Amino acid sequence: MCKKKKTGCRCKCKKKCPQQLTRCEGSQCQEFRDFFASEGYDLSTNIVYNYTQVNRCFRQAVKYCQSLGAGFRIATLSELELLAPRFTYIDDAGNLKKCPTLVWSRDENGQPIIVRIAPCNGGQIKIVRKSNLKKCKVQVICVAPAGG
């Protein structure tokens, strides 16, 4: 049986939350995530971002983005699709490898959703649809208007 935590953003049962790491993750993924987190601007998409590898519940993620300054907010699905190629690398054998990463976003109705960037089974992003996701903890990509 799962234990209920006192903080307002912990999963009542961790089994209900998606897992950050996957079996198909390459050995260089953490290095690439660190590099992506250190940058803050994607020239090819003109997206100003802040990527943090700290897992947060949705409420904490929203507050974190707002704390970064005017205009920062959680990345939309279309912005995550544009940034998804950054979560890939070419290994020593010349093969494209993906670094699946879970982050917060919002659906078309503004509801919190968890998105797996660069999923293993093809595509750029995959929406994780499970109930009560607000209490799960995943990483966050905050974005702001370019030049803002």
List keywords for this structure.
3-stranded antiparallel sheet, 148 residues, disordered N terminus, 19% helix, 4-stranded antiparallel sheet, alpha+beta, globular, single chain
Quick structural overview:
By secondary structure, the chain is of the alpha+beta class. Helix content is 19%, strand content 29%.
Question: How would you describe what is shown here?
Answer:
With about 150 residues, this protein is an alpha+beta fold. The chain has three helices and nine strands; from the N terminus they run H-E-E-H-E-H-E-E-E-E-E-E. It has helices at about 30-40, 60-65, 75-85, and strands spanning about 40, 45-55, 75, 90, 95-100, 100-105, 110-115, 125-130, 140-145. It has a four-stranded antiparallel beta sheet, with helices on both faces. The chain has a three-stranded antiparallel beta sheet with strand order 6-7-8. Strands 4-5 form a two-stranded antiparallel sheet. The protein is globular. Mean pLDDT is about 85; it is low at about 1-5.
Question: Helical region count?
Answer: 3
Per DSSP E runs of 2 or more residues, the count of β-strands stands at 9
Q: H/E element string?
A: HEEHEHEEEEEE
Question: Percent range for helical residues?
Answer: 10-25%
Quickly give the structural class. alpha+beta
| Average pLDDT figure | 84
Cα-to-Cα separation, first versus last residue: 47 Å
The description of the largest β-sheet is: 4 strands, antiparallel
Round the Cα radius of gyration to an integer and report it: 15 Å
> Poorly predicted ranges (pLDDT <50, ≥5 residues)?
1-6
Strand order of the largest sheet: 1-2-9-3
